[in-house]
């Protein structure tokens, strides 16, 4: 592992421990903050105290804890926090709320709001934010409790045949990013695509281009997962549903130019045309 990447892991682990210490001083009442595996803290400290050559692969577990938020009327909700090793510099925290107070419709609304909260965080905001998130969650939950459930209910459309499973649909999406340079992100894109049995490619550099195709549910899961990483800018520029066949045999990283961060436009366009996607030069770059 490159020294720069190892230092990124060390920086993230250090920030996570500092944040945990702060949270422990705020949520200090018995049962307010509960570590799911207290041994992880010792492992992290050992990793930081090492001679700076211990690989990041020695980090076998993530920092996970549950924070109990107290609401009016002595009611409580539990917030589970899991921190990927590259939080907060490159990855987002995984946060879930567990409560029976909200009901299904309000719980879904809170889940959507939480996804939006993460989505609005910019890549430049690479600072720990769990305390801010917990404060926001407490205010949001208190607000939801005051409002009628009917405000959030969505009318369900009855299926003509509820026993019929949904048909598998082949879908392709094209994703445009301001840049893709981090080796950790690049590896995560490949890992997620292969895990979800998707084909396509990623083009690192500036701009970064990603194309994935496969089962529509897996394609959308891929998008949900990668957009939760920290990006300066990332968006889906084209969705192609109901495809008859795949355009790629596997998922791989395409390097068109050895110079970091520079795209050889001619090579890339020829690559697209060779796979039958020449029309995407207009969608991606505004070229006729």
TrEMBL record:
UniProt xrefs under InterPro entries: Phi-like, Prp3_C, RWD_dom, RWDD2A-B_C, UBQ-conjugating_enzyme/RWD
Protein name, as recorded: IP09963p
Name of the gene encoding the protein in the UniProt record: Dmel\CG30338
UniProt xrefs under Pfam families: Prp3_C, RWD
RWD domain ranges (all copies): 18-144
Upper classification of the organism: Eukaryota, Metazoa, Ecdysozoa, Arthropoda, Hexapoda
SUPFAM superfamilies registered for this protein in UniProt: UBC-like
Superkingdom in the source lineage: Eukaryota
Originating species: Drosophila melanogaster (Fruit fly)
